[in-house]
Amino acid sequence: MTSSASNRGTPPGDGRAPARPAVQRPPGRGSRLRTAAIVIAAVCAVLLAVAGGVAVIRALTVSAGRGQAPGHPAAVGSAVAGSAVAGTGRVRPAVTSLPRLSAAQLAGQRVIYSYPGLAPPASLLRWIRAGEVGGVIFFGQNISSSAQIASVIAELNQANASPGNPLRKYPLLLMTDQEGGVVHRLPGEPVASEKEIGESPHPIALARAAGTGAGKNLAGVGMNVNLAPVLDVYRAPGGFDDQFQRSYSMNPRVVSGLGAAMIKGQQAAGVAATAKHFPGLGVAATEEDTDKLPVTLDVPLSELRTIDEYPYQAAIAAGVKLVMVSWAIYPALDPKLPAGLSPAIVGGELRQRLGFTGVTITDALEAGALQPFGTIRNRARMAAQAGMDLILCSALKPGEGGQARIALDKDYGSGALSHPVFQAAVQRILALRASLRH
Q1: How far apart are CA 237 and CA 416, in angstroms?
Q2: What is the pLDDT of residues 316-355, one digit of tens each?
Q3: Which of 22, 114, 152, 178 is the most buried (most CB within 10 A)?
Q4: CA-to-CA distance for 137 and 131, rounded, in angstroms?
Q5: Mind listing the domains of the chain with CATH numbers?
């Protein structure tokens, strides 16, 4: 989320957010038939992908006309059915086909659950054993010590290994917000806030160390995803991000370099990084908190692309595995829908313009910004229709995740959600899970 989670029993500052052609040589005469066959096969593959709503964008360059910042490499993310190995640029074997899954199991892979207190409830464990859970997010009230949360994670992993779970070979996505500064769940690294890193004498080295520290800290208790770093470029001292020191800088180049450094450090330690909150909350004023109320950020398109989205190019080039999309409305991109419910922003800006092919994750589904969009079920449905892969249910109520799963299950079964597109999202998620440590 984007602000303190006092309504979920966590202290201020412990919330989700004080809480975006190859040149071919002409074939020789002897190889024309072989080349023609290859071309036909390639065209068929492209047509099948388009028919399924899956666009794998692997641009080698992003022209300035598409918004690339000078000096940054092309946007490169994880493959739709494959995943870059953290910190190496190598790609693991693709998830070429899905296991035989029920609609409920397919739907469950797209949901991140949460629960209250120090022990996971029986309902959550039961759903995990049935293969209906993609992952779990942990908050302050779920953690009393490193030993305690490590024991809980062992229990979750044991449930995931159940013989009745067709996805038992894929580790659960076990995540938290370990940004540094006031936003952290576990004691220890990273200690410095993003702003402190940005103002330090050696910020790149410190950002990389913060990523390494966060990765080792989370991996040490069995977590494998960090909902960090924040890539918002704040505009005014004391604004929404700056009041909690959650932005590296007012300079998009600084945010770009430091965000990429943290991502690389974190993923080299075996923990997937999440760049957030696309396309950016840097212009938000102090009280413009999407956790609490609808927020509209009327930023000109040129400013969004040259400032707010700028750091995502370096993050994607660094191989960031996930991108969290914000719940603010950006009229320059979509005048009616919050970013995470907008196909124009998820599919257009993030996927097509920037070329991100990794896993997208929503901000908190229970956020106040989504009050105009009805029930949890309807919000989950709209997020999936917009192109969001993972639906984050962080109200500390397992039933919230259950409602999201039911909605996706129902709409998949009825055909209201495209089967090829739905399955492509699950493939991306499973590729991410396959790339992480057990």
Answers
A1: 45
A2: 999 999 999 999 999 999 999 999 999 999 999 999 999 9
A3: 178
A4: 17
A5: 59-435 (3.20.20.300)
